[in-house]
Amino acid sequence: MNEVLKAIRERRSVRKLKPDPIPDAERDLIVESALYAPSAKNAQAWHVTVVQNIGAIDRITDEVKAGIIRCDVERYIPLANSPEYKVNFGGSMVVILSIDPAVTPCPAEDTGCALQNMFLAAHSLGIASCWLNQVGPVADDAKVRALLTELGVPTRNKIYGCAAFGYAAGDLPSAPPRKDGTVNHVR
Ligand SMILES: Cc1cc2nc3c(=O)[nH]c(=O)nc-3n(C[C@H](O)[C@H](O)[C@H](O)COP(=O)(O)O)c2cc1C
Q: Among 8, 14, 85, 158, fewest CB within 10 Å belongs to which?
């Protein structure tokens, strides 16, 4: 199996990360991978905010948790009330992928392509990652938006997915079993 196929098979969402910093060169390779993702109509409507300052990461955690409560995002209330939950899962880098919905017809799909490129690039460099879905639903809460703006997220942009990156604390989890019956062939 070639390296790309191996990375696709072996990448996992890791929710226990170490605070060790990611070297700049590797960070840049991960970020650049997002920019090489396919995008609808080649809109490249994304903006990547790379947060490596732990104080800023903690502020994102606190504001997102408060925003979940304020906006009553029911599915994330347990996370917002969990003292253990942090948007970085203990890792040293959070990426806020925001996207201009006026520029691309497919903002969610473009986001998925860009994030998956980053996940695979990170994995190939020995860096673990996890999708982070909690920021998007509260991004237009006034206090959350104020923080995002302070961090450089363009005000017109929406958020369909963010990500945490860092070195895995322990072994990578094994792949969840694949579901049966998800493929058919027409020959
Ligand atoms: C659209 C999307 C949203 C996700 N949101 C979260 C999330 O908010 N928190 C989290 O821990 N994992 C999140 N994940 C990761 C999934 O839980 C994970 O991909 C799935 O359990 C399969 O595990 P694997 O990535 O290791 O193959 C998300 C994944 C996707 C594609």
A: 8
